[in-house]
Amino acid sequence: MKIIGITQSLAISFLLASLSVTAEDAATPPFAGKTIDFPKAYVYQMQKGEGYETIQKCSICHSFGYILNQGKQNRSFWEHETHKMIEAYKAPISPEEEKVIVSYLAKFYGNDKK
User: Fold this and answer.
1) Looking at domain 40-109, does it have CATH number 1.10.760.10?
2) SS3 for 3?
């Protein structure tokens, strides 16, 4: 009998070979002891100011690069995006925090005329 182009005995041999992993190999994660150093370009610094502490909640789900890559937008845009994060993606943000976040984004990353 053939199984996807290989014989049943060959398939059994592959299966048995894959099970011959030692207990030590199985207990060691494949990336144990390895680290990743991200270049500084991946560190996105947000403006300091009123709302800075609250905006940190956004980084639970995504980097600040996601926000910064939107470019300067009007208050309506930031209201829509923040509300979408809460409704569609279930961001753990209270209504009070939502207002603070929108105000922060409109102030520091907004393009509304003053």
Assistant:
1) yes
2) strand
